[in-house]
Amino acid sequence: MQDATENKKVIRIGTRGSPLALAQAEDVKARLLAAHDDLYDSTVEIVVIKTTGDRILDRHLMTAGGKGLFTKEIEDALLDGDIDCAVHSSKDMPTTLPYGLKLDVFLEREDPRDVFLSAKADSFVNLPEGAALGTASLRRRALALRLRPDLKVVTFRGNVQTRMRKLNEGEADGTFLARAGLNRLGMAEAATETLPLDQFPPAPAQGAVTVEIREGDMEMNARLAPLHHAETELAVTAERAFLGSLDGSCRTPIAAYAHLEGKTLHFRAMLLSIDGAQVFEQTGTCDATIDQAAKLGKDIGAQIRKDAGEPFFEALARAIEAEIA
Fold this sequence. Notes:
The chain has 325 residues and is α/β, with parallel strands linked by helices. Helix content is 34%, strand content 22%. It has three domains: 1-109 and 208-228, D-Maltodextrin-Binding Protein, domain 2, CATH 3.40.190.10; 114-201, D-Maltodextrin-Binding Protein, domain 2 (3-Layer(aba) Sandwich), CATH 3.40.190.10; 229-325, Double Stranded RNA Binding Domain (2-Layer Sandwich), CATH 3.30.160. It has ten helices and 13 strands. The strands form three sheets. It has a five-stranded mixed β-sheet with strand order 2-1-3-10-4, with helices on both faces. The chain has a five-stranded mixed β-sheet with strand order 7-6-8-5-9. α8 runs parallel beside α9 (290-308). The longest helix is centred in the C-terminal third of the chain and has 19 residues, at 290-308. It is globular.
């Protein structure tokens, strides 16, 4: 007797191969299976694609191109029809997508906060004076030095497990990770401290998983629709609009967080110098619609750019070039 699933079309989900990326892709697969009675484990396949960002381990990503390094090969496979959708961490996504692709779905956002990890201090502020802090994020570096200018920052690259191994091997006295990543990996207990949003606002779209599809693919659009979380889309829309307004990338120390209270979206955004000594911050609110969220993020980005002035951005670029030289 022929297997009922034998002739069914396989949905191919593209993803990076890190444990966290695979956990996110497995989550999307599980949600698809739960949402559709005609889908089975054998008809939804996870396709691992190695990206340029995964291959570069010996230098800072800023020297090689930034955010798109974690998406290009996956998006090429999507455009070529080798996969049907792609699962990404939203904070890894460039603000401009390749022609023909769109971010169709946002899963409900996980905890957006950063966590501090250390075997030498019970909290970030209690790190010994002059301690080594491991991070490759300009945002985390700037926020940390704003509070603790005495710290020495060393570059930490790699996935969650790699950075935790480096920490355990003594390459630094402390480091930061996203709370969302640890939660998704079932490793929440590894955190020494969860950092408060008012002192340590997250990267734009941190904690939000998105699914990318081809424009006009109505079948995948319908399949993914039950997975969509509208509140997360609102918040991420504002944060990504702010990112785009500042031309934000791995080369820009910026933080942003939007959240819904009733029918009002609240937004806070920040731009810093890499040493944390200069900070430009704005807050705002708007009605809970996609258009208004995008306008709010864009307007706040424009205001912060005006407040900082072009000399600040020129000095920031020189400081970053000197840092990665």
